[in-house]
Amino acid sequence: xxxxxxxxxxxxxxxxxxxxxxxxxxxxxxxxxxxxxxxxxxxxxxxxxxxxxxxxxxxxxxxxxxxxxxxxxxxxxxxxxxxxxxxxxxxxxxxxxxxxxxxxxxxxxxxxxxxxxxxxxxxxxxxxxxxxxxxxxxxxxxxxxxxxxxxxxxxxxxxxxxxxxxxxxxxxxxxxxxxxxxxxxxxxxxxxxxxxxxxxxxxxxxxxxxxxxxxxxxxxxxxxxxxxxxxxxxxxxxxxxxxxxxxxxxxxxxxxxxxxxxxxxxxxxxxxxxxxxxxxxxxxxxxxxx
Length: 290
Known about the structure:
The protein has two domains: about 5-165, Fructose-1,6-Bisphosphatase, Chain A, domain 1 (2-Layer Sandwich); about 175-285, D-Maltodextrin-Binding Protein, domain 2, CATH 3.40.190.80. The chain is built from nine helices and 14 strands. It has helices at about 5-25, 40-45, 50-65, 105-110, 185, 195-200, 210-215, 230-240, 270-285, and strands at about 70-75, 95-105, 115-125, 130-135, 140-145, 150-155, 165, 175, 190-195, 220, 225, 245, 260-265, 265-270. It has a seven-stranded mixed sheet with strand order 1-2-3-4-5-6-7. Strands 9-8-10-14-12 form a five-stranded mixed sheet, with helices on both faces. The protein is globular, with a radius of gyration of 18 Å.
C-alpha cells in the first residue's frame, strides 16, 4: 500500500491537468441535468460537464496507477468506472479510501467565480490522512498530511516546493453553511457574517469554505462536514492550527463511526476566542420551527 504522501505525489500531475481543463472550459461550460435535493440546495443541485469529465479522468488515472485502491467520487452514480473499483466504502484501518470532489463549488464555477476547487482526500478508518485542494483560477494548491501541517504553493510547484501555511491575522469573517442562517444575526455582534443560503450572488463572489485557507475567514459553522469537501477543508484548517469540533465542542468522531461520508455539524475557529463565540451562538440559539 502506498503512503498518503506517495498517493498525492503520483496524482498531482493529473490533478494539475484537470485544473487546466477546468480553467479552459469555465467560460463555455455546459450544464448537466440538476441533481435533485430535498431542501432545494442550489449548490448541491449544480452539476456540469467539468464535474463528470474531471472525475472520469481521475478515475482512469487511479485505476492505472493504483488498481486496488478504494475510491469514492462525488459523481459515482453517473460515471462509467465506479464498478471497476474494489469498493467505494471506508475499509479497515490502513486500507485507504481516496475520495474526489471534482469541482467543489460547482455553482460558483458555473457563475464564473474563481473560488472553486478540485479536492482529493486520502481517508483512513479513524481519520483523514491527506487532503489536496487545487484552486485553478487562483493558480494555487494546498495540501495537508496527518500530523505534518498544511502547505501551499503555485500550480507550478511540487509538494517539496510548497511552504507551510500559517495565517496570523485572518479577516474577522465567518461563514454559515446551508440551513445555518438562523445564527447570522446573533453572530453579527462579533463578526462579519457570510450566510450562504440567502447571501449567494451570481454577480458578486462570496468566500467559500476554502476561505479558511486564504485568510478570508476566521471561522465556519457547517451543518455537516462532508468528507469530500467541507469536512476536508475543515481538517486542513485543523492541521494549520485552527480549532475544529462538532457543534457541542466535542472532538469529531472517527470516520468509520459516521454515516453518509460526513461528520455531524462542524465548528472551525482560528483561535480559542473565535471558536468559543461560535459555540456560544449555537448553544444559545435554535432554528425556527418549520
